[in-house]
Task: inverse folding
């Protein structure tokens, strides 16, 4: 989740050093984080005054960190030792040439620590069998719905995608103007297609990726959405668009498949849904699958620099604490990637009166069922933009969704090749 952050110039937040302090004789550990993570990094620095830790707050815009790292590469100085990525796919850029920045963490983060993360949460951080990042939070998708409205209309929450499609056809006839979903950029590709297992970014290594949008796991999404986009129960509008918020505020959102953070960061502040109405259900089940898999939209990661040298262990200890300290993670705004921390986070969330029922069990199961094969890739921006330019454009033009898939395949393959991948 990209929180409301300032894109101000760099703000130097703290330097844990002082007159007569042992830190004055140590090399500086430079830490770049976003505004949301700044306080936590400062807290760590205060607790480790024997180290010379400097925390710098960075803007969250996509491309900002790679641009700064590229400048450091050119000048041969100024690299951070630790960096937080609000755009986690950028780890694929930072780990590969010409950046060659991200350090493998396998030998500096104990196996017991890695094993405590939610199963599958670290998979996207691994390339060629090496781990290049630790995830701070994950954003599995669930089926959000207005429990009061569902009851009023006499509808049952769909458990399969066939039921979801049939319900959308009923809604169009019986309650026109109400929505059951949206496809736009990552909110289409990362929710519907990713949950189905459509291979649009299946990174096998830093140099090889599988893309096959003609796969049945992609075609079935197009077929399921075709009647719903035609009858307007699934819109092409972005859920972060002000016009979409107005629909929410007018009570027009019946269901909305989306990431775990939608509840606290869209339904509550933006859609202004009244307390006691919002509930979460598992993503619908695709025919032939053994469980309801979730897609992914969001989350952030920590990366350690190859340039840290003798500071590598200290950097690894810092990112380990930031991602696994249960007291810290329990206070963070989004679903922790670390298993025990997620449990602690859920204890507070369970009592939130905003929800019609405790959403934590559903969110926890969704985190465990994130569909694999959704990797961090260097063509992230093109992955999102091409979806709108090709798939959403087909919907807007009234053309068959499935007919747009070959063009999307070509665009993704071009983008992957242009960023150094061999496409399989």
Result:
């Amino acid at each position: 989740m990209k929180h409301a952050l300032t894109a101000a110039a760099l703000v130097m937040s703290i330097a844990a050093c002082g007159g007569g302090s042992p830190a004055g004789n140590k090399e500086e550990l430079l830490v770049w984080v976003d505004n949301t993570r700044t306080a936590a990094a400062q807290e760590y620095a205060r607790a480790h005054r024997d180290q010379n830790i400097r925390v710098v707050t960075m803007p969250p815009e996509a491309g900002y960190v790679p641009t700064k790292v590229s400048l450091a590469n050119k000048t041969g100085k100024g690299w951070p030792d630790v960096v937080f990525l609000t755009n986690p796919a950028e780890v694929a850029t930072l780990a590969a040439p010409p950046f060659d920045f991200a350090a493998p963490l396998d030998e500096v983060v104990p196996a017991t620590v890695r094993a405590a993360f939610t199963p599958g949460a670290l998979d996207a951080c691994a390339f060629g069998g090496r781990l290049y990042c630790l995830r701070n939070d994950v954003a599995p998708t669930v089926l959000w719905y207005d429990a009061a409205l569902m009851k009023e209309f006499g509808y049952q929450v769909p458990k399969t995608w066939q039921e979801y499609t049939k319900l959308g056809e009923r809604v169009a006839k019986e309650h026109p103007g109400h929505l059951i979903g949206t496809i736009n950029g990552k909110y289409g590709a990362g929710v519907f297609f990713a949950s189905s297992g459509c291979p649009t970014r299946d990174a096998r290594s830093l140099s090889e990726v599988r893309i096959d949008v003609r796969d049945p796991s992609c075609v079935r999404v197009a077929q399921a959405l075709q009647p719903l986009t035609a009858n307007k129960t699934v819109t092409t509008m972005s859920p972060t668009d002000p016009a979409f918020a107005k629909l929410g505020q007018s009570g027009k959102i019946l269901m909305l498949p989306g990431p775990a953070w939608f509840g606290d960061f869209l339904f509550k502040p933006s859609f202004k849904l009244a307390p006691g109405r919002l509930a979460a259900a598992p993503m619908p089940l695709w025919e032939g699958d053994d469980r309801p898999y979730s897609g992914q939209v969001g989350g952030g990661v920590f990366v350690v620099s190859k340039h840290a040298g003798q500071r590598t262990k200290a950097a690894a200890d810092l990112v380990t604490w930031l991602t696994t300290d249960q007291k810290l993670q329990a206070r963070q705004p989004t679903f922790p990637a670390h298993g025990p921390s997620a449990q602690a986070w859920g204890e507070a969330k369970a009592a939130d009166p905003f929800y019609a029922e405790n959403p934590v069990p559903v969110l926890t199961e969704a985190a465990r069922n994130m569909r694999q094969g959704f990797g961090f890739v260097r063509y992230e921006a093109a992955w999102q933009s091409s979806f709108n330019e090709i798939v959403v454009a087909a919907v807007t033009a009234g053309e068959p969704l499935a007919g747009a898939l070959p063009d999307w395949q070509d665009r993704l393959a071009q983008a992957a090749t242009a960023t150094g991948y061999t496409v399989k």
Remarks:
- The chain has 16 helices and 16 strands.
- Confidence is low (pLDDT under 50) at residues 1-22.
